[in-house]
Amino acid sequence: MNPKPNIVNLPVYKPGKPIEEVKKELGLNDVIKLASNENPYGSSPNAKAAILAELDNLYLYPDGSAAELTSALADHLGVRNDNIIFGCGSDEIIALIARAFFLPGDETIMADQTFSVYKSNADIEGAVSIEVPLANGTHDLGAMLAQVTERTKVIWICNPNNPTGTIVPEEALITFLNAVPAGVMVVLDEAYCEYVTDLSYSNGIKLLESYPNLVVLRTFSKIYGLAALRIGYGVASPQIISLINKVREPFNTSRLAQAGALAALADQEYVQECRRLNSAGILQLQAEFKRLDLAFFPAHGNFIMVDVRKPAAEIFDALLRRGIIVRAGHKLYPTYIRVTVGSAEQNKAFIAALEQVLQEQGVQV
Predict the structure, then answer these.
(1) Model-level pTM?
(2) Three-class SS state of 307
């Protein structure tokens, strides 16, 4: 069988190593995973209870329109029901946008070091990805704007950016949106927005009324702690949502995911506590990195990208053998690792292991 020519060399997405795999491979009993930006505190107890209550309904198909969850989320965000679409994680919304809007030869603009799923889905549809270098780890909006042509369909902005954790301030984003042609879609990926405490950060939802070409992506995988259930969403004009819906599979989110997300959304007190603990964890890690004389990018999500001053793959392997899973392999930052902000105890264990590894590697700390 002959596949599409444009997917032959498409790389397969590599998630963070699973805890179970590391335990089995290395014979470890205790492993801390700080590789996939998961919430170390898990989900709201209310979400767990709602999921358990839904187990009796596993024989029933889910509500394809997620009507109850849509209504609750619309109230929470201050938008209309027809502004929202749900997906199997926000990743699926990215794939649906690519499926609905890209024709072979169309161009799409993104940062050169950002969430890889933007480019992979563009590649699948035969679109041409224009990758613009980050400036100090942050989206260079002026340079991205300079790449817009009559062939440009979509511009992707990950805010906070994954993997660097930097943000585009609201003022800069608005200036950019004012300059983007009305016929070019701007996708603002705010997967980590609930973690941000910086007052200069924008709320993409509030910008939708002024910019009908804007799509905002968010998820229940991060601060809500429902990564295993795979549920995210997009918010945009009814016209855009209607077009994306045309290429969506009928039952793309499960009953358990919808029930868990509905209960998690209602427990904003839990969300606030997770944000507080994450902010404390960022300060904890930043203080330790300064003590070890390690440079790092400003952290605004629930992860930090830090320069370990040695090939990141070597540090990754050495940490792995000590039961600490982080993320390496960022092509433009070969000496940087990305580490999820864990609990205070997890962060302490990571720093102890990192300091030991660096000393063994001859890094002055």
Answers:
(1) 0.94
(2) strand
CA–CA gap between residue 71 and residue 111 (Å, rounded): 34
What kind and span of H or E run contains 305? strand 303-307
| 127 in Cβ contact with 153 (< 8 Å) | yes
Q: Is the pLDDT of residue 90 over 80?
A: yes
Domains along the chain with CATH numbers: 15-42+269-358 (3.90.1150.10), 45-266 (3.40.640.10)
Q: List the structure tokens of 50.
A: 């709602």
Least confident segment among 24-38, 196-210, 262-276, 291-305: 24-38
DSSP-derived secondary structure for 310-333: S-HHHHHHHHHTTTEE-B---TT-
Find out whether 169 and 149 touch, Cβ atoms under 8 Å: no
Rounded CA-CA distance 119/104 in Å is 14
Nearest-angstrom CA–CA distance, 41 and 39? 5
Mean pLDDT of the chain: 95
The number of residues making up the chain comes to 365
Q: Which two tokens stand for residue 360?
A: 């063994």
Query: Cα(158)–Cα(138) distance, rounded to whole angstroms?
Result: 10
Per-residue confidence (pLDDT) for residue 12, from 0 to 100: 65
